Amino acid sequence: MSIARRVRSVELLYTRLDKEIAQFQSTTKLHCIAGCGKCCTKPDVEASPLEFLPWAYHQFLQGRALEALDRLKRSPSSVCILYSPLSLGDMGKGKCSEYAHRGLICRLFGYGAGRDKIGQLRLATCNIIKENQKDSYQDTVNAINNGLSIPIFSDQYKRLAQIDFKLGNTIVPINKALQMALEEVLHYYAYRPFPSKFKRSA
Ligand code: SF4
To answer: Of 43, 107, 112, 174, which shows the fewest CB atoms inside 10 Å?
Structure first.
């Protein structure tokens, strides 16, 4: 499948998922605290290259793919390079510099559930939400146990892998996933013409 088609398929999956998440948020009232980027500062976030293919493609179309690849290769940190802290003194406050192109894991965390050993759905969220939105959190846990619809990590990743089995099933540290996504796009277009409907900007 061409890069453009895979990108469109991943974006379609995100559009559907974002609608499910919006519904979940509106029902549960759970929400991230404005300006909090704590979850993005975790050094052990993992993702698949495929979930960042739209981001990589966008970088390529903007003529920024090589620069981003270089930045990734030189980054000494395992924190996602797309995270933009408000200040270096307080890494926990900040935002995603590529929010529209963030990955599947970024969309699901806080609003998705994994299954525990006995198959029970468990909301994947952070301690900040658990502590600051105690009532909504507890109500949500109870509602999930009573059948509230919630995006499920394994289902979403299965759908992702149907678009590209290899790139969707490879789970690596997030910066490696970003790098692999860029390399996939750059390799693809190494011997192919630039996508005709987009004008080269660099
Ligand atoms: S892509 Fe954006 S939302 Fe996802 S971990 Fe990186 S900074 Fe955070």
So the answer is: 43
